[in-house]
UniProtKB/TrEMBL annotation:
Signal peptide: none annotated. InterPro entries: P-loop_NTPase (IPR027417), Polyphosphate_phosphotransfera (IPR016898), PPK2-rel_1 (IPR022300), PPK2-related (IPR022488). The keyword Plastid does not apply. The keyword Cell division does not apply. It comes from Deinococcus aerolatus. Keywords: Kinase, Transferase. One of its GO terms (molecular function) is kinase activity. Pfam families: PPK2 (PF03976). It comes from the Bacteria. This is Polyphosphate kinase.
Length: 268
């Protein structure tokens, strides 16, 4: 099977209009085929993660951004969950603390970037500071433009320091979000995930669309954005898994060389 993952990558310098990006693709697969493929990809991902961890020279940062109920937690569970947890760190950036607000907006972010050999996952990220803050008029357009430029430079720094960056926007439709929010209300085991604040943010759908489109404009060769059709959860998992796997293969981490000759060692 072959997915044209480049079709989902935001080209450098491209103006993004989310209405032109599908939320409901299946890649020519049915659900059963997609789940079987995801399982095969999981085995490959585990292998390449082990190589990255063993090499201990470079790292990978995965950024997940989405609207409420967009599938960030599901992606962590079904895609990131295939990795050995010893080599993964997951961070979730919510409202800054008083200590964090006393520093520049990237201060708390930099501390969570991956050390060598590791994969870090940002379940929400530094982009919150140019998304929520803009929708709720906490910063003006000039400050937002400055922050977007700081973000580009920050991600360039990470790349120059040996960290590959992948950024995924999980693109769900308004109708699909409605179904998922309703499902949380209807299921006692999912009710804890529902917040009345989700409805307030949903009412600002168009404003979020605008600021997301501008944020996606930070796609670069070193830190690309991918717009992931996310209405079908299984296809979301397949596509993200394939992109991560392609990236790890391109990095081509190597097991460290050793002077040991296993034929000369006897374990008694």
């Amino acid at each position: 099977m072959n997915l044209k993952t480049e079709d989902y990558r935001v080209k450098v310098g491209k103006t993004v209009r989310l209405k032109n990006w599908s939320t409901d693709e299946n890649g020519g697969l049915d659900k059963a085929e997609g789940k079987a493929w995801a399982k095969a990809l999981a085995d490959e991902l585990a292998h390449w993660q082990e190589r990255l961890y063993a090499e201990n020279r470079r790292s990978l940062l995965i950024v997940l951004q989405a609207r409420d109920a967009g599938g960030k937690d599901g992606t962590v569970k079904h895609v990131i969950g295939t990795f050995n947890p010893n080599g993964v760190r997951i961070s979730n950036f919510k409202v800054p603390s008083e200590e964090e607000r006393a520093h520049d907006f990237l201060w708390r972010i930099h501390a969570q970037t991956p050390k060598t050999g590791m994969i870090a996952v940002f379940n929400r990220s530094h982009y919150e500071d140019v998304l929520v803050t803009r929708v709720h008029d906490m910063i003006d357009d000039n400050t937002a433009r400055q922050r977007l430029e700081h973000i580009r430079n920050f991600e360039t720094l990470l790349g120059d320091s040996g960290t590959r960056v992948l950024k995924f926007y999980l693109h769900v439709s308004k109708d699909e979000q409605e179904e998922r929010l309703q499902a949380r209300l209807d299921d006692p085991d999912k009710l804890w995930k529902f917040s009345a604040a989700d409805l307030k943010e949903r009412a600002l759908w168009d404003k979020y669309t605008k600021v997301y489109e501008e944020a996606l404009g930070t796609s670069t060769a070193a830190a690309p954005w991918y717009v992931i059709p996310a209405d079908r959860k299984w296809f979301r998992n397949v596509l993200i898994s394939q992109i991560i796997l392609d990236t790890l293969r391109d990095m081509d981490p190597q097991f460290p060389e050793t002077d040991l000759d296993p034929k000369k060692i006897k374990i008694k």
